[in-house]
Amino acid sequence: MKPFVSLCMIVKDEEKVLQRCLDSVYGIVDEIIIVDTGSTDSTKQIALKYTNKVYDFEWTNSFAEARNFAQQQATGEWILVLDADEYVERANLQAMIDVLKQTDESVEAYDVVIYNFMGVYGERILQHRHTRIYRNCPHLRYDRAIHEQLQRVNGEYVQAKQGILTVYHTGYMHQAVVEKKKHDRNAPLIEREIQAGESVAFDYFNLGNEYLSKGEIEKALESFVKAYQEKKDIRLSWVSYCLVQIILCLKYLKRFEDALRVITDAETLYSETADFPFLRGEIYYLQHRYDDAAKQLEYLLENKSKYPYTIKTFEYVEYDPHMLLGHIYRHKGNLQKAMYHYSSALSFNRKSYEALYHVLQLLARAHHQEEMIQFIEDKQLANDELAISLILRIASVLHLEKVIQWYALKLSDETARRGFQIKVNILQKNYERALQQILKSSVSNLQTYIRTGSLDSYDLLVTAFKTNQLDVVRLLLHLVSEQKEKEFLLFMMNEYKEASEPMFYLLLLERTIQLKEYELFEQFFALSDKFPASVHIQIGHLLHRYEFMDVALQLYRSVENMSAWDAESFVNVIEALAVKNETIEAVQYGLLAISFGHRDFRLYKYVIELMNICGISEERKKVVQQAKRIYPDSEWLKEKEK
Predict the structure, then answer these.
(1) CA atoms within 13 A on the CB side of 615
(2) What keywords is this UniProt entry annotated with (predicted)?
(3) Phi, psi at residue 326, to the nearest 5°?
């Protein structure tokens, strides 16, 4: 009997993930075709456990040619295309096959939804649609060397229906990208497609994605804009995604006003997608327009039914709005509401480092660590090794020594456990004991400590200075790869005269504050004159963030050239003065900042609110009007205008 569904795959060196993929489909599809393009690991041996239809194909720098070769070997009525780093849920696949058995003959292909797990732990999920199921007909073939598209032999692209199958993809997680060097492989193939000139808009879109993933934002934006300008049809599935990418590039470049203009235009085209209302709220948040942002994000959460679709990620519907609202309410001092939103985000994505970090951070302000452990257990947040590692990493950052002690015992890796034991000794100020444990550790052990998040360079630096054993710093020279960081370590050992990158210095100062080693802070602060004058401003920001407002205020005022102050400096000074009820002086600093050309929304808000307290009504009206010219869409300003 002729097979109904043939799985077609092209693979190369996929021994780490191939079994997971094949286990998810074995016994459900009728035929498995595997085309190997030059594996040097055990990929083919794994494949042969599931099928005898394993073929060699010499790589021609064309994914389309490899996929078409695989199709030629298939005998099923329908073809399912998967990559080795993908998998499906078996019940979902069976349901999709049931749909295929009832499909009208006029339907040639189906799109699937692909969930792309991103980050280190797969904590972010992006989605896209792609045609992965099609009839095994001679007139249907793949085209293009990369980001291949299914088309008819006459050149027409296939109009696929939306299927019910979901495919899970782990190939964009951090480690997989590093190991596969996908950026090095993809960009030249895309450039070749652009030279061919057949689908220029789509090629520029894909090139923009490559630039964006490498952090080359300006190039990415240029490519996305070209893609949008060259599009042939607004209904093409990638066009809406391209608009989202343009907005994200503008966001990264802090071109917020341009981003808002694109969002306004996009909302007229895609009125039922959650991406654009969320991104509007995020831009408001990044402009420090917290009231406007909260109103926008709460509207989105309360009206989810109006936005049944998403373009880039379904996390724009709930997870991301809840996270931003958590940040907003924490900034406002409403910790109860902040906890509600962080907890809601965590319920939506239990793998989220960010959500769990903020939940535990808020719990630590009002609860004993024993209660935090009980919370973690009640919520079943530590139900596997990866989850335990995540909790330990967060507890280490938050300096929760009892939480570390409790969960370190549950780790199977003895070296990792030892690293967290050293961290506990540092937190308990048992520096001599920590030093002895460090000295007994090999370089490989130290690398494990850093990789698992138990220790970092700043823990070792503090330990070295507290025990007066600076030779320990030499161990760090074997652990850091960045030249600037090595120069900083040599500077701290008095073996390098010039101070290097201030970032490392600021992180070391922050660690002394976290560990409450204030004498060590003073010792390191004495080195600040070795750095550019702007470092005093950054130290002021650091002290203000840890609520040493008076000390920060003194430090800001010690920088006599106020043109060197950034907007954050003025905001922090205003907040410190307001706490001291020195309202008039706070208003004066705000007006001075505005006269210097700073456009930070918080400056206008503080001045308007403080003028209201002081009864300065006429000048207040002028400030409101001035702010409205910069932020014409601010609902908060419209309220203050009344």
Answers:
(1) 0
(2) TPR repeat, Transferase
(3) -60, -45
Written as six digits, the tokens of 128 are 């896209």
- Beta strands in 119-246, from DSSP E residues, in sequence order: 124-135, 140-143, 149-152, 161-169
In a domain, 396, yes or no: no
Helix (H, G, I), strand (E, B) or coil at 29: coil
**Tens-digit pLDDT profile for residues 459-504:** 999 999 999 998 888 878 877 878 888 888 888 888 877 777 899 9
Q: 130 - beta bridge partners? A: 112
Smallest CA-to-CA distance from 478 within 432, 445, 506 is with: 445
Cβ–Cβ under 8 Å, residues 206 and 123: no
628 vs 120 pLDDT, higher one:
628
- Asked whether residue 240 is domain-assigned, the answer is yes
Could you give the CA distance from residue 18 to residue 9 in angstroms, rounded to a whole number? 10
Helix extents (H) in 26-147 = 43-48, 63-73, 90-101
Q: What does residue 416 show for φ and ψ, rounded to 5 degrees?
A: -65, -40
pTM of the predicted structure, to 2 decimals = 0.79
pLDDT band at 186 (very low <50, low <70, confident <90, very high): low
Number of domains in the chain: 4
Query: Do 18 and 80 share a structural domain?
Result: yes
- Helix or strand run (H / E) with residue 11: strand 5-11
Same domain, 32 and 153: yes
Amino acid code (one letter) for 199: S
Number of H helices, E strands in the chain: 33, 10
In this structure, are 196 and 106 located in the same domain? no
Residues 134 and 257 in one domain: no
Dihedrals phi, psi of 32, to nearest 5 degrees: -120, 120
What CATH number is attached to the domain comprising 585? 1.25.40.10
Give the span between the Cα atoms of 109 and 140, in whole angstroms: 10
For 265-281, the three-class secondary structure string (H helix, E strand, C coil) is HHHHHCCCECHHHHHHH
DSSP codes of every residue in 339-355: HHHHHHHHHH-TT-HHH
Last residue of a domain, one of 169, 194, 216: 169
Residue-averaged pLDDT of the chain: 89
Last residue of a domain, one of 245, 273, 303: 303
Q: Evaluate whether 219 touches 225 at the Cβ level (below 8 Å).
A: no
| Phi, then psi, of 520 in degrees rounded to 5 | -65, -35
475/585 same-domain check: no
Q: What is the pLDDT of residue 165?
A: 92
Candidates 62, 111, 115; CA nearest to 87 is 115
Amino acid at 71: Q
> Is the Cβ–Cβ distance between 10 and 67 less than 8 Å?
yes
Under DSSP, is residue 86 helix (H, G, I), strand (E, B) or coil?
strand
The b/e string for 107-139 (b: 16+ C-beta within 10 A; e otherwise) is ebbbbbbbbbbbeebbbbbbbbbbbbbbbbeee
Tell me if 121 sits within 8 A of 174, measured CB to CB.
no
Look at the block and give the residue holding tokens 């490519």: 223
Phi and psi dihedrals of 167, rounded to 5? -110, 135
Residue 267 — very low, low, confident or very high, per pLDDT cuts 50/70/90? very high
Whether residue 283 is found in the same domain as residue 185: yes
Q: Do 627 and 561 fall within a single domain?
A: yes
Are the C-beta atoms of residues 259 and 282 closer than 8 Å to each other?
A: no
Count of residues in the chain = 642
Half-sphere exposure of 444 (CA within 13 A, CB side): 1
229 is in which domain, residue-wise? 177-303
Write phi, then psi, for 29 (nearest 5 degrees).
Answer: -75, 155
Q: Sort 592 into a burial class: Cβ within 10 Å, 0-12 / 13-18 / 19+.
A: middle
